[in-house]
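Re: [ENG-882] Designed sequences occasionally contain unexpected residues at chain ends

Forwarding the minimal case from QA. Structure tokens:
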């Protein structure tokens, strides 16, 4: 029991200690210091987006402000960053997956729901508009974290050990999915046979025949070398990632009004920049691996049927999380 209690309070204790340390550092010269965090290194699109955000804020703000961006999971993981931002401790801004917001806002994961977007054009128009604003408002109200921009752009496909090009070849495909219930429901609806398996077990599971397939974007395929066991990539485009650029509400309110305005403006622009570099990198990386004969891509010829089959599942999930209006707003974007 004592061990479990220590585990639950450890992130808060770390955050509090870091907050005291950071506060002491910034008070010595009275400079405004804004601290970002990422799980990745400077080459990752998330870090490049955060650096763009820094550049834009400095361009739009006339005063002195210093940015400190901690990469390589130095301040924990995305779920930790979101908790810190909510508490107003240690991390002021970060890019966070919608799934890590679900503790506060049950509607947030709808942003990452499979088959939410018709194609990349639809995805980009949705993120350039205000269709997701009700979710952003809900996150702000419940977690006190502002969604100031939208990065992301990785397109997820099926990673298979045999060609899958149509509904007949997809039927009964034993595929690894993430643990969220909506993932299982969606893949059942398109006639596959979803199985929840830990991410670090995917390679061996395909290699040993426990499953026939998984799903991921190009960076994941490359980093985990999934092409060695699943070299047939079915271009289902079943998900296009949305990764909000978040900023602590408590921090934002403590800043000068002109700096607040600069942050809000820079957030939207930096998010668009992040989408551009990640979506371009995603398609280039997939093409590169195919040119190197590491994998072979296959067009899924009946994608319209996939979209039709998932409609009732998406509606039911949206109703469960009180976000049917958001789904309708997304669907109405042309």
């Amino acid at each position: 029991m004592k061990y479990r209690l220590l585990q639950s309070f450890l992130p808060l204790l770390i955050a509090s200690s870091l907050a005291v340390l950071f506060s002491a550092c910034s008070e010595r010269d009275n400079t405004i210091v804004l601290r970002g965090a990422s799980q990745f290194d400077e080459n990752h699109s998330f870090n490049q987006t955060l650096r763009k955000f820094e550049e834009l804020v400095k361009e739009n703000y006339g005063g002195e402000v210093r940015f400190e961006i901690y990469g390589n999971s130095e301040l924990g993981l995305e779920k930790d960053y979101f908790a810190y931002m909510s508490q107003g401790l240690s991390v002021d801004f970060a890019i966070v997956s919608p799934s890590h917001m679900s503790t506060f806002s049950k509607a947030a994961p709808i942003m990452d729901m499979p088959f939410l977007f018709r194609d990349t054009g639809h995805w980009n128009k949705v993120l350039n508009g205000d269709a997701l604003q009700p979710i952003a408002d809900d996150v702000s109200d419940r977690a006190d974290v502002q969604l100031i921009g939208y990065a992301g752009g990785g397109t997820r496909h099926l990673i298979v050990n045999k060609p899958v090009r149509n509904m007949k070849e997809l039927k009964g495909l034993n595929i690894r999915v993430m643990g969220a219930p909506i993932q299982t429901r969606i893949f059942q609806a398109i006639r596959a046979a979803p199985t929840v398996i830990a991410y670090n077990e995917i390679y061996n599971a395909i290699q040993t025949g426990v499953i026939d397939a998984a799903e991921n974007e190009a960076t994941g395929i490359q980093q985990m070398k999934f092409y060695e066991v699943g070299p047939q990539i079915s271009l289902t485009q079943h998900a296009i990632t949305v990764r909000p650029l978040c900023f602590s509400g408590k921090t934002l309110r403590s800043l000068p009004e002109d700096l607040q305005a600069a942050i809000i403006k820079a957030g939207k622009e930096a998010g668009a920049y992040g989408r551009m570099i990640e979506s371009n990198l995603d398609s280039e990386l997939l093409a590169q691996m195919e040119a190197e004969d590491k994998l072979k891509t296959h067009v899924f010829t009946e994608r319209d049927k996939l979209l039709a089959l998932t409609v009732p599942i998406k509606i039911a999930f949206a109703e469960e999380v009180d976000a049917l209006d958001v789904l309708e707003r997304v669907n109405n974007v042309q």
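QA comment: On inspection the terminal residues look reasonable. Residues 1-10, 23-28 have pLDDT under 50 and may be disordered. Proposing we downgrade this to a documentation issue.
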